[in-house]
Amino acid sequence: MKKSFILFLSFLSIISCTRDADIDVPQVDPTLSVSCFISPEKEMSSAAIFWSRPVFSQQSLPEFPDDLTVILIGNNTADTMIYDPISSTYQLPTSVFPIMAGQEYRLEVIAPNGKKVSAKTSIPQELPIVNSFNIEKNERTDQNNTSYFQYVFKLVLGDPSSSFNYYQSMFYFVLNGYTGFLSQSFKDDANLQNGQLYIETEYEQYYSGFEENPEFEVDSLQYIVINGTEEYYRFHRTLQNQSPGDPFSEPVIVYSNIENGLGIFAGYRSVLAKVALP
Amino acid sequence: MSGIISEKGSGETLPGVSVISPDQQTGTTSNNYGFYSITLKGDSATILFRYLGYTDQLFLVRKEGDHRLNIELFDKTSELSEVVISAEKTRKISEETRMSTIEIPIDQIKKLPALLGEKDVLKVIQLLPGVQKGSEGSSGFYVRGGGPDQNLIILDDAVVYNASHLFGFFSIFNGDALKSVELVKGGFPARYGGRLSSVLEMQMKDGNKEKLQGEVGIGIISSRGTLEGPIKKGKSSFLVSARRTYIDALVYPFLPADQKSGYYFYDFNAKANFIINDKNRLYVSGYFGRDRFYFRPDYGDGNKERISFSWGNATGSARLNHIINDKMFSNTSLIFSNYNLTLRLEESAPESNDFYNLRYRSRIRDWTVKHDIDWRPSNNHYIRMGALVQMHRFEPSAIVIKSSDNFENESSQDPVDCVENGVYLEDDWSISPRLKANAGIRLSHFYSRGKNYFGLEPRFSGRFMLTEDFSIKASYALMNQYLHLLSNTGVGLPTDLWVPSTDRVAPQRSNQWALGFAKDLEKPQLTITVEGYYKTMDRILGYKEGASFLEVGEFGNSQEVSWEDNVTAGRGESYGAELMIQKKFGKLTGWVGYTLSWTILQFDELNNGEEFFARYDRRHDVSIVAMYEVKEGFNLSATWVYGTGQAITLPLANYNVVSNNPDPSSVTGIFGFPGFQTATYYGGKNSFRMAPYHRLDLAAQWTKKLKRSERTFEFGVYNAYNRMNPFFYDIEQRSDGTNKLVQVSLFPILPSVSWTYKF
């Protein structure tokens, strides 16, 4: 299909003419973009913070600012997140500033030029409930008559409470102690069937050659299920929907809950498990 | 009294003719098939037949005489007859019950200037208040905030799904084959259903029953021809009309061998009608049109590449008129409509025996049976009732791929068969000489994938005469729409996909209220209408952010993407005011239209759930249309349009964000977050306005009458003051690293000539 639209664009280019637009373009100042996710299950609360780059303005600020004041505020307590030059993020260990389920938190970021952005979030009360996780193994043959194993992962989640929940399920293969991302799925309670959520994904592994190099054979799978806040869910869904390669798609407005800024500050709960492949 | 009103000399039936009894102060109009019925009191009465562009006829009828009176009206340009009397008054817009309805005379369409001289019904529709055009040159139109899929476009009772040629620059309707065009923007009578925002009803000419006549036209990009005449004189007739573009043929010899490509479109209209007897008439008509784009390069290495992309409509209808008695008329129709799009891609390398073939197809096909009855029990009531059964078959996309590496696959989303039914009853009721109302009810039903939807749709419109030529009008209409058009290009591409309501996708619904005034002025002879409207639209459908037709059913994705997964439902509201001042008579004719409007949409899954302006939201829309007859055979015409710029989404800033990575053991990337990526800040969906659109078009027509024929030469100028209107904007990075907004414009000043010969 894409070829035909390239032809259509070619047609337009023949009959069209291009010149500078004689219209005022909106000028925006650089603003702070915050990405901060907090959870009781994390050892470290981290915030990645950047200055945005206006499209039509010459103004520019360091893209990776290390001179910001970043304060994490909880119930009657507050602490400053410290810049870590190795990860280029602002950090605060949860052992120093605990993140508690059911609590509300606020993040404030103040720049030396006086710009201030803030956001608030809460931590979901309950951990995700994994009712079952099964792996189905099938032997398949591709169009080149090469055999491979197809693994179908079936995850069934329970509904922990009467509140509306938002889930992210992430699957990783495990190889020599490292994990590699396979796929993810976003579902909310609108997808409940008989009080449960059904998530399915596939992994294909070609098995020829592993006799000589067993270290490259994936032997287990890791999944992480996240019960996030609504803002966590909306941010990730909109970010995932960005498809810059498709000129005809509707532009995606990436969700933000940062006041006077961009990005996300969101809390979540998570469970993690490793399962050996059959 | 009842009968059929037709044109003297051709036998063409005339819809919308005023039939008035001046002495009894009563009247009616002829229906779409020229049938009228009027109830008269006493032993004798006079009847006046009046129609724009035709001379009036007055008859004295007696009770004991024949109650059937078939009338032939004289075109004002033909010779006058002894029975003709001069017109005293014209049909008054203030007296009509219906509001938000505009008839476009075909001769006006032919007089107005047009892009490259191609006369286009839809481009004239765009000049009316309450109707917004899409992008530059596009024939798509938006009525009172509704999307292009919310317009019901009917040609001889058959629904036309894609009304455009050449990626939307021209419409498929050939003015030579049309008899009447009417646009309904609101206050919909119950007989119409299935779309939320407008009904554009067109009727093809019947064909001349008396003599053979024809018309040939030659233009810059196309030529056309029409032939009509009697099959059996006075009893039956035929009409055939065809048009084809020939840019491909002209350009082909000059293209390099490795760039052989071309584009053309053609239309073919045909109609035949038969007067079976005094009570029965049969009409059979059809339309077939196609666009084709092809690319056949020859690289000189023996390898072959062939790409063809074609789309088109086919419609057909057979209609039987039956006069049941002097007060009742019925019409039974069997209608077919088909729209399909095909893409073929063939690549082969004979030396290596490699080949790759791809075929993509999407299609919608309808079969409809319809029965309508017009009943005039008295002059105070005009009752219409009817029913229709419509079978839809949707094939949203089907792809077949075959290649030399034994890769053969077929991917198609199962066809969806749906049934759409409707029954209606409406009455045009003269409650008193000052108060008249059209009230009706329509029950609609739609069945798709085991799911039934029902809709009860009340309709009302009424007028109250404040003075003899000044009335206040009001209307309300509830509409349901069971079909949806998925489009995110806004340029009317043929890939815009028609899809049905299903168990997952609910029908669209609208409520529209309108209030207005209508005034007829004697001197100068003007009609003035002012209307305000408020419309809500629920469950309207759009692509999700990031989705487009390129994803719909795209082959090769192991988890086939259904269009239902790519769409989201929302709501909209539109409100505004429209002013139209029209001059229908005299040397100078035309209209001035002004629309002030707002169209706001809200989708939970778009723009973070916040409201936004529709792309076609226009705060101000102005059109001035003028036709001036300098002398007999020499006409000048001009149109000037102005519209607030389209609302678009413009990137304002780029910024980095990271997604959450809760995996403690994964290989951490930059910043410890492997999900580091760049996002774009737009400042809100459709929050930027393109530059205003304005344009002046001019045309001059010279018509010379010969002994048995006439010829017309036309010179036109499109975009006379060479306004560079933006088609779209792009961002260009300059060598100094700065970004600049650039506008792409399509049509500069474009002169055109055309020549028409009529015999």
Question: How does this structure look, described?
Answer:
The complex is a heterodimer of chains A (278) and B (759). In chain A, 9% of the residues lie in helices and 48% in strands. Chain A has two helices and 16 strands. The longest helix of chain A is centred in the N-terminal third of the chain and has 14 residues. The mean pLDDT of chain A is 84. With 759 residues, chain B is mainly β. Chain B has three helices and 49 strands. In chain B, the strands form ten sheets. Chain B has a 22-stranded antiparallel β-barrel. A five-stranded antiparallel β-sheet of chain B has the order 3-2-5-6-8, with no helix packed on it. A five-stranded mixed β-sheet of chain B has the order 9-16-17-12-13. In chain B, a hairpin with a 2-residue loop joins strand 29 and strand 30. Chains A and B meet through helix 1, strand 1, strand 2, strand 3 and strand 4 of A and strand 42, strand 43, strand 47 and strand 48 of B.
Question: What are the salient characteristics of this protein?
Answer:
heterodimer; A: 278 residues; mainly beta; three-stranded antiparallel beta sheet; B: 759 residues; 22-stranded antiparallel barrel; five-stranded antiparallel beta sheet
Rg calculated over all Cα atoms of chain B: 28 Å
**What share of residues of chain B is helical?**
under 10%
Number of helices of chain A: 2
Structural class of chain B: mainly beta
Helical fraction of chain A = under 10%
Structural class of chain A: mainly beta
